[in-house]
Amino acid sequence: MSLQGFLSASAAAGHADDDQVSIIASLAEAAKSIDHLVRRNSIVADLGTETGGANADGDHQKALDVKAEGLILEHLSATNAAALLSEEQDDAVLLDPDGSVIVAVDPLDGSSNISVNVTIGTIFSLLPSHGDAAANTLQAGRHQLAAGFFTYGPQTTLVLTFAGGGDVAGFILCPDSGEFIRSGGALSVPADTKEFAVNSAYTNYWFPPMKQWMDDTLMGKSGPCEKDYRMRWIASLVADGWRILQRGGIFLYPADQRPGNETGRLRLVYEANPIGLLMERAGGMAIDGVNPILDLVPENLHQRVPLFFGATSEVKRLQHHHSSAD
Ligand code: AHG
Ligand code: MN
Ligand code: MN
Q: What is the distance in A from the centroid of ligand 2 to the CA of 235?
């Protein structure tokens, strides 16, 4: 089934309305344009080059961060999206005042991978506008209408879910037809897992619950987990997320003691929230250590949070370490 077919079926089943469907379709067109650029990286220009600019968070922007955002804005401007919330913009970009949907995006996730030909992606979240987009930018993820992400890698993929119902669906961009084609049935996080994803280079900066979690995990079969794990870290949340939806496991990006990371590294509105909706709808969990990500009310657009997501048993074990530390 094509993405268009899936969107039509979702609308017919009452899982999504026409505005949501047309916005997802326009994001897919933007993703195809980003994919086109990614495949020509270093032929057209080095898209991993720093532009000299910085985003609202102080991250140095790469050429592809800026180009990806431009393509998304261009495509969304042709829909009736009410506003765009983006990692690359200080504030909300107001679009159609009559629009019913606010779109939050991380236009290019995994920027450090652009120049080294490793999977990168785009993350998106749809929120209701309630007639005044500017006043509705800070909503808990529980209010999301839809969420998903694209990955640009050996395959270009899309994962999508509507809060109104239906599957967490995976699609592959077919290089022959140029269409996203559904791959497999409903995605659900496999329960039985032996993989974790964390950047352990920061171990020395971690807080005690994380260190304790790692100690237990690394004891393998002889420790409380009674199994040996494998570690994977792609440095693109989307690529780790796609793997977890296929193969299970847990992703961890804790808060740590590095300046600026005391409340985490990843952003709530356009990274953690969409992942949170996908995980919960796929039978997994996403938490900040203690609370479900989807229950957090953002205090600002670029708020950072600790993020742990994946298979329920693994996330609960991590949660136990944080709860027992209180
Ligand atoms: P972004 O490129 O949008 O800033 O996000 C990158 C994020 C995330 O995708 C990834 O898991 C993490 O940063 C990698 O962080 P480290 O470089 O600290 O490992
Ligand atoms: Mn990101
Ligand atoms: Mn980004």
A: 9
Report how far residue 280's alpha carbon sits from residue 271's, in angstroms, rounded to the nearest whole number.
Answer: 15
* pLDDT value at residue 302: 97
pLDDT for position 325: 65
Catalytic residue among 19, 35, 69, 87: 87
Which residues span the domain enclosing 157? 3-182
Residues in contact with ligand 1 by the CB-under-6-Å rule are 59, 87, 106, 109-112, 199, 235-237
> Is 35 assigned a catalytic role?
no
The verdict on 155 and 277 lying in the same domain is: no
Counting residues of the chain whose pLDDT is more than 70, the rounded percentage is 99
| pLDDT for the residue 26 | 98
What atom of ligand 1 comes closest to residue 251's alpha carbon?
Answer: 11
Scan for tokens 């079969």, then name that residue. 221
Question: What spacing in Å lies between the alpha carbon of 93 and ligand 2's midpoint?
Answer: 19
CB 70 within 8 A of CB 77: no
The residues near 292 (Cβ < 8 Å, ≥ 6 apart) are 276, 280, 285, 286
Q: Are residues 143 and 167 in the same domain?
A: yes
Q: Look at the chain and report how many structural domains it folds into.
A: 2
Terminal Cα distance for the chain, rounded: 48
Residue nearest to atom 17 of ligand 1 (CA): 235
CA nearest to 245, candidates 193, 319, 176: 193
- Share the mean pLDDT of the chain: 95
Q: Once rounded to an integer, what is the mean pLDDT over residues 57-80?
A: 93
Structural domain contains residue 260: yes
Name the pLDDT band for 41 (thresholds 50, 70, 90). confident
Distance 246 CA to ligand 3 centre (A): 23
Task: Return the CATH number at 266.
Answer: 3.40.190.80
Task: pLDDT band for 18, please (50, 70, 90 cuts).
Answer: very high
